[in-house]
Amino acid sequence: MYRVLIVDDESIMRMMLSTMVDWEELGFELVGCMSNGREALEYMEHERVDILVTDIQMPVVDGLALIQHVNEKPDPPQILVLSAYNDFPYVRQAFKLGVYDYCLKRELGTETFTRHLEDMRQELIKAGRSTGTEHENGQSEKMRMTTLLRGQAEPEKGLLPGRYCIVRFSIRGYWEIVQKFGKDLNRDFFPVLLNLAEQISQIASHAFLVPIGDVSLTMLYQLGEGDDIQAVLRVCRRLLRAWKSYVNITVAAGISSIGKGPEDFENCLSEAEANLTMKYVMKSKNMFSPEDYREFNREQALSCKDEYTGIIEALKQGENINFEAEKSKILAAAASMGLTFGKKYALYLAYHIAMSLIHQIEDTDYVYETCLSELN
To answer: Which residue has the higher pLDDT, 286 or 369?
Structure first.
């Protein structure tokens, strides 16, 4: 497939363009949406782009400067220029730089956009431009990364970046989502989330994000030189806000420590999943990373696992008599510890219940209202 990159400083325009056509059905791959020319140039330093759709008036690096830089590279893409202004000097400069065509945003619709894409594809074919699909046995880097994040492949040398974090996302309210989007979430729900994520330039240029099952996603985020975990936290905050604002869904995120190379991948993935379970004990938050160990000592919680085995097994089996007996033991133990340690004891219990029943409990309030009300 030919690879398309969209560049526009208006988030609404990026979203509109990215959803205006069915890219896969037309035989294209939308590889990203950037908010200015500098972000686009940084992306194109490492990734192939066959078709560039760009605005003219943008901050940092505008469309004309972007086109000049792109045309200095070998095998420049076909370029479609968009503008909100019918300004002939811009049109003339753009055509002097060798763009394929120019279009006013207000005149752009699905039919017009599709025609432009088809015409640019023909220009690429005439020029003998390869789609690149014959390389790597027909499997793109994106496809290989997708199979890796879904647990369908082992980490390969050279596939993972030098420094990265893994993020696990968990979506709340499965039945509400099904009622709103229908049962085919892979077709009607997850593409909406992925399109919104692509509007964040850091994700478009530094991340791979894939759905896992019905209510979760996994992201690999590549860290730049000098970046620390705070850079990942900032991006995740923006993403969670976007999903909440545009789709009205609540998502929790578990973030791993920084990994280096394939040897750290499995540990980072496990750590992200473990951090995500902290949503059950820190309900006022929706992001959990190694930074949160200051508030909740997970190692200490894990050391107490055996003390909670009885009550957890009773919950799993639905044995009310055993449950009441085990609850009495835990209440007595918590009362003997004093307020500070008693609260920690209750938190650790919630954590272990969540870890044990994570696949059985959809409504996590059950853990609190049923098991912890007397401890609190």
So the answer is: 286
What angle do the packed helices 339-357 and 320-335 form, to 10 degrees?
Answer: 150
Cα dihedral 332, 338, 339, 343, rounded to 10, equals -60
- List of residues 6+ apart from 132 with CB closer than 8 A: 3, 48, 140
CA distance 357 to 376: 21
How far apart CA 106 and CA 165 sit, in angstroms, is 40
Question: Which of 186, 89, 188 is CA-nearest to residue 146?
Answer: 186
Total-model pTM: 0.57
- C-alpha span between 199 and 209 (Å, rounded): 13
Contacts for 243 with CB less than 8 Å, ≥ 6 apart: 193, 196, 249, 251
Whole-angstrom Cα distance, residue 51 to residue 45? 15
Per the document, the length of the chain is 376
Place of tokens 């640019």: 120
Q: What are the beta bridge partners of residue 29?
A: 3
Tokens matching residue 272:
């992200």
Give residue 208's Cα distance to chain centre: 7
Residue type, 68: Q
Q: How confident is the model at residue 229 (pLDDT cuts 50, 70, 90)?
A: very high
Cα–Cα distances in angstroms (integers) from residue 270 to residues 91, 167, 214, 233, 257, in the given order: 53, 10, 19, 18, 11
Dist. CA 311–CA 257, nearest whole Å: 32
Q: Scanning the structure block, which residue is given the tokens 């019918």?
A: 86
Q: State the helix-helix crossing angle for 37-44 and 63-71, rounded to 10 degrees.
A: 20
Helices (H), 150-200: 174-181, 185-188, 190-198
State pLDDT tens for residues 80-100.
998 876 555 676 787 778 888
